[in-house]
Amino acid sequence: MKVVINDKERGLLYRKGKLKKLLDAGNYTAFGSEKIEKSSILQAFVPLWCTIDSLMLVKGAGEKLIQVDVADNEMCLHYLDGNFKDILSAGRYAFWKEGGRHEFRMINIEDPEIGDKLKPYEIAKLSSAKYQTVNVKSGEKARLYYDNRLVRILEPGTYYFWKNGVNVEAQTEDMRIRRLTIDGQEILTSDKVGLRINFVMNFKVTDPAKVAEIADHNIYMYLYSLSQLVLREYVGRHSTDEILASRDSIADEVLNVIRERSENAYVIIESAGIKDIILPGEISAIMNSVLAAEKRA
Fold first, then answer.
1. How far is CA 264 from CA 76, 171, 219, 230, in A?
2. For 211, which DSSP code?
């Protein structure tokens, strides 16, 4: 079988399954039990039919090839003629010296965060199987966890992490003022009238790390439940007439109680208000009749 090895390739000649010699560019014929393996001089070379160790024992291999060993806890940046070429994961590699000027930089990946170890253009050439990206938007912060252990808080920006067996997770927290709305809460007054109240509250998280400890990492549910409870306590102590007469002051009293009870929740309650108080149908009809009669009078 005839084999052509071009100027950008080199070859390995096998006879009866054993590596016999290295081949330069040219035309060759493989006879009988012979096989020729071709390799690009521009790429990392991992031979198909022999090991790197046996390859390096062949006559002339030391002058033609560079051997590179990458440990399990390392990644290797490969530069060709001063330009970033690729990145090598754990393993043993060989490179043809004739392919250009090879340089190698080892990076320890035991710490999952890539940080400034790689330039953005180098990261762009990585396979997505080797790393993951975390984006923290403006107005957010993020809790960074390694194997469910809080490591630190991430500021807005883009972060890259090795996929090295450590489970990396980032939970974002909106640090802007947020609105919580409680709609259609039916609450009994002291005179046993069921009022439906729509309540709104604005709040802001102050500590993104500590707030995760509140109510199963759900500050919305915590504040929702707290607001429900305070509303029920307030309305339950007053009659329907008192509620309607003091509508404007309800929000202030409820807000003060919510602020007091949420002191250790790592939030600031900016404001709160009653959007609507909806009376039961029959009471609403009576009041409308009274209002109509007063208007006619």
1. 48, 21, 12, 17
2. G
